[in-house]
Design a protein that fits this description.
- The protein is an alpha/beta fold and 317 residues long.
- The chain contains nine helices and 15 strands.
- It binds threonylcarbamoyladenylate (TXA) and magnesium ion (MG).
- Magnesium ion (MG) binds at residues 143-144, 152.
């Protein structure tokens, strides 16, 4: 039988070499990270960046995150500061993205940053992407590997669903553990969280020893690309639901409705981190089962709950 997923590969030395070869020749590939799967290209290459925007149908005003192996690889591209050093020491490699000022002689292609004077940088933790970053002499521009405004992928097959054979190589690195995108923090002035994530306000405040503003997270657009309609599962989503309407899928946390048809718990043991990691998988699963709408119960607004609320608000727009 013909293997229809012939562009999905397990990771081994041969695939590592092939991936590096592709990236060096300005092709775009999909890689697993601990947050979500990314669509990766050489951040110094205009061709690679253009391909990423085209494949995702991403508006050109929405800048990309640039991924590095470690701090020393980034020092020619961005201006570090004290807050960056503190957070880097505590959380990197990991699910945290920093907005920093771009250096004048930075080699990052300006269209990757939507012509801004700032750059978003991240040091991902997943073993596979680190293996690759260690062996390239350029950083990787890598947005989530989904079509613009759709749900981020947490496994290789999710990537395949959006792009089919339009990308030559998707590395299967299992299900992304964190399951939602990195926290984005702007460090170019008073630190400010632009996109909440698993590394939450409290954890960052503890390290920086300051109170962060804007904790009551609104869905106002703060990043240039933080489009309001985003993370859409493709069917209507209703928030803060109390009663099941008897036909929609119903998402909640806990085990109150366990084993009841159409009820989906994000975490039976009421763990918000687990709930965040199950969010996109559950939304996709519900859509595949053929439900026409999704009801979501109130999710507490603390810790990872802030990130969950941010994503479901956008999904409901
Ligand atoms: O977890 C993640 O961050 C994943 C994995 C693949 O690393 N990547 C990801 O990238 O979520 P993307 O492109 O889907 O989201 C990047 C976000 C966008 O909201 C964008 O507007 C914001 O980062 N961003 C990028 N550069 C920025 C900048 N210079 N200033 C403000 N926001 C920026
Ligand atoms: Mg994205």
């Amino acid at each position: 039988m013909k293997n229809i997923y012939s562009n999905i590969f397990s990771f081994n030395r041969k695939i590592l070499n092939k991936t590096i070869k592709y990236l060096k020749s300005e092709r775009v590939v999909s890689l697993p990270t601990e947050t979500v799967y990314g669509l990766a290209g050489n951040a110094y290459s205009k061709n690679s960046i253009k391909k990423i925007f085209m494949l995702k149908k991403r508006p050109n005003y929405n800048p990309l995150i640039i991924h590095y192996y470690s701090k020393s690889q980034a020092e020619n591209d961005v201006i570090f500061n004290k807050n960056f050093s503190k957070l880097y020491k505590k959380f990197c490699p990991g699910p945290l993205t920093f907005i920093l000022k771009k250096k004048k002689n930075s080699k990052i292609h300006s269209i990757a940053c939507a012509n801004l004077k700032t750059v978003a940088i991240r040091f991902p933790k997943h073993r596979i992407v680190r293996n690759i970053l260690k062996r390239t002499n350029f950083p990787l521009a890598m947005p989530s590997a989904n079509l613009s405004s759709k749900l981020s992928p947490v496994k290789a097959l999710d990537v395949y669903e959006d792009f089919k054979k339009k990308i030559p190589l998707i590395i299967n690195g299992g299900v992304s553990k964190i399951g939602i995108e990195s926290t984005v923090i702007d460090l170019t002035h008073t630190p400010k969280i632009l996109r909440p994530g698993i590394i939450d306000f409290k954890k960052i405040e503890k390290i920086l020893k300051i109170k962060l503003k804007g904790k009551k997270f609104s869905s106002k657009i703060k990043s240039p690309g933080m489009l309001k309609k985003h993370y859409s599962p493709g069917i209507p989503v209703f928030l803060n639901q109390k009663y099941h309407d008897k036909k929609s899928a119903f998402i909640y946390i806990g085990k109150k409705y366990i084993n009841r048809k159409s009820f989906f718990s994000l975490s039976e043991k009421y763990d918000l981190k687990e709930a965040a990691s199950k969010l996109y998988i559950t939304l996709r699963n519900i859509k595949k089962k053929g439900y026409r709408a999704i009801q979501i119960a109130r999710i507490p607004l603390n810790g990872p709950g802030i990130a969950i609320n941010d994503r479901i608000k956008r999904a409901a727009k």
